Please model this.
Amino acid sequence: MPGHAVHLEHRQRGFKLAEVILGGQDGLVNVLGVILGVAAASNSRSLVIAAGMAATFAESISMAAVAYTSSVAEADHYRAERNRERQEIERLPELEREEIAAIYRRKGFRGAFLEKIVDTITENKAIWLKTMMEEELKLEPTSRRDSLKSSVIVGVSALAGSFIPLIPFFLFGASTGIVPSLALSALTLFLIGVYKAKHTIGRPIRTGMEMLVIGMLSALAGYLIGLLFSSRRQ
Model:
């Protein structure tokens, strides 16, 4: 059905967008916090870059691993629930049939039309099981391939985001690179928020500002810790 294809395509795009934003924002904010802290504490450009590069690769690998394991856990949960539903259809068909009727009754169907829908769904156990998984449990299947794809998207996005606050420190010193790094990071976070709002639901300027403020507050913690250690050394 064309409508279903459009809906599925939109949902898949949204899922990938969420992964890109998750990886990119997390990588940018975490690395920004690290390098600001190091810059404030040491005033050494080489140390800032070394710490930033270490954080960049550690963050991207960590994010990719978390994305993979969480996706695999979702797939395992889906299979477990699917097996449970299959057994309930075999052992308690009347109860499961009533659950199908309740689902479509909540959608507004009544009388003979409702009975026809229930009969059509429950005459095929594969469709019956699929309907229970999607309509009652709100679960969708995830393959190992999907898990790996999600891991790669999140990891690459985290890697790309992590390099953004580092760029100014390749061009300037440790102290002079702080303001350009903050400015570039803030602009990137704002644009990510605007892009997200335009492709989902939300106000572009408001979403951009929210993402900017949240990211800057998170990074500020690293900078303040760096200042604390810097003052103790003096």
